Amino acid sequence: MATVDVSFPGGVQVAARIGSFAILTDQPPEDGGSHAAPSPYDLFLSSVATCAGFYALRFCRQRQLPTEGLAIALDIERHPDTRRLETIRMTLSLPTDFPEKYQQAILRSVDQCSVKKALSDPPEIELILA
């Protein structure tokens, strides 16, 4: 089980340690930060995109398919009043010489992203006092 330990190094920065990795977050100036690191929300969105990217890359490597030009772009739509996240749109760009016979299969592979699945069937989050 992964344990994430959080600390507060200063300002509105929040640091997370997971295993041997340290992840720093900050806020933009309009939210009191110095923009020295991505915001937690930016990391959340990045985790969706990088997870999908891993599945795309693995699909290509397992089949010895080209990866030059392989890319994923993530765009979001928010509700205009509540600012609630409504849509995450990922656009998969394939290499120019990517075989057409694998196009639907790579989409199915990318759709297996575990971060996306966690959003589709969200876990219960419990908050307790120590």
Give a brief description.
The protein has 130 residues and is an alpha+beta fold. Helix content is 29%, strand content 27%.
Query: What share of the residues does DSSP label as strand, in percent?
Result: 25-35%
The figure for the number of domains is 2
The overall pLDDT, averaged over residues, is: 96
| Category from helices, strands and their pairing | alpha+beta
- Classified in CATH, the superfamily of the largest domain is K homology (KH) domain
* CATH 2nd-level architecture of the largest domain: 2-Layer Sandwich
Largest sheet, order of strands side by side?
1-2-3
State the shape: elongated
Radius of gyration: 18 Å
Name of the CATH first level of the largest domain:
Alpha Beta
Please, how many helices?
3
Q: What does this protein structure show overall?
A:
A hairpin with a 2-residue loop joins strand 1 and strand 2 (13-18). Helix content is 29%, strand content 27%. The strands form two sheets. A three-stranded antiparallel beta sheet has the order 1-2-3, with no helix packed on it. The protein has 130 residues and is of the alpha+beta class. The chain starts with a strand and ends in a 10-residue tail after the last helix. It contains three helices and five strands, in the order βββαββαα. It holds the Pfam family OsmC. It comes from Pelovirga terrestris. This is OsmC family protein.
